[in-house]
Amino acid sequence: MKVTVAHIGRPQGLKGEVSLDLRTDIPEERLSPGSVLETIPADAGPLTVATSRTASGRWYVGFAGVADRNAAEELRGIELIAEADDGDEDDAWYVHELVGLRVERPSGEVLGKVTDLLNMPAQDLLEIKQTNGVKALIPFVEEFVPEVDIEGGRVVLTPPYGLLAGEEPIVTDETRGDDAGDEKA
């Protein structure tokens, strides 16, 4: 099975290097010099990684035969793909497995659908389109996403208040304050 590794972004510098929008959590392996990546569209590749580096949390790659900014610009928007790993990890998913899954609370209340998974420097973010049409970015960590059920077609979400649009505040005696209920004469 083929998986998306990255989308090629804008050129960086004058020597043919490009920025990448990553779709893998193992870029060190996938983007090491000498790696050969297929492309979509297919006639743009395959591309062989000549150099790779990170700066300020972004990945930059130079490909063999791409020697200047003009050649790099022609690669913008191309999707880089590779064979999927046969990993044993129970808590590892590919973006294509997550996109389209129903997002719900533990109670079963449907909150929306997964639209993307963004690989960010600090942590991955699950992008969901809420039932009200508003998109939200949720840190893809066990505290907020305790369950991913690919076969059941759902992701269970336990977000803190304020992470989703349109949430009503939860008011309790503790959140109201000690003197909120006292009447003054």
Automatic annotation (TrEMBL):
Residue ranges occupied by any RimM N-terminal domain in the UniProt entry: 5-85
Cell compartments where the protein resides: Cytoplasm
Sequence ranges assigned to domain Ribosome maturation factor RimM PRC barrel in this UniProt record: 95-163
InterPro entries given in the database record: PRC_barrel-like_sf, PRC_RimM, RimM, RimM_N, RimM_N_sf, Transl_B-barrel_sf
UniProt cross-references to Pfam families, sorted A to Z: PRC_RimM (PF24986), RimM (PF01782)
Keywords: Chaperone, Cytoplasm, Ribosome biogenesis, rRNA processing
GO CC aspect terms: cytoplasm; ribosome
One function term, GO molecular function aspect: ribosome binding
Superkingdom of source: Bacteria
Example GO biological process: ribosomal small subunit biogenesis
Quaternary structure and interacting proteins, as annotated: Binds ribosomal protein uS19.
Family: Belongs to the RimM family.
HAMAP family in UniProt: Ribosome_mat_RimM
Function: An accessory protein needed during the final step in the assembly of 30S ribosomal subunit, possibly for assembly of the head region. Essential for efficient processing of 16S rRNA. May be needed both before and after RbfA during the maturation of 16S rRNA. It has affinity for free ribosomal 30S subunits but not for 70S ribosomes.
Record NCBIfam families: 16S_RimM
Name used for this protein in its record: Ribosome maturation factor RimM
Organism classification: Bacteria, Bacillati, Actinomycetota, Actinomycetes, Micrococcales
Gene: rimM
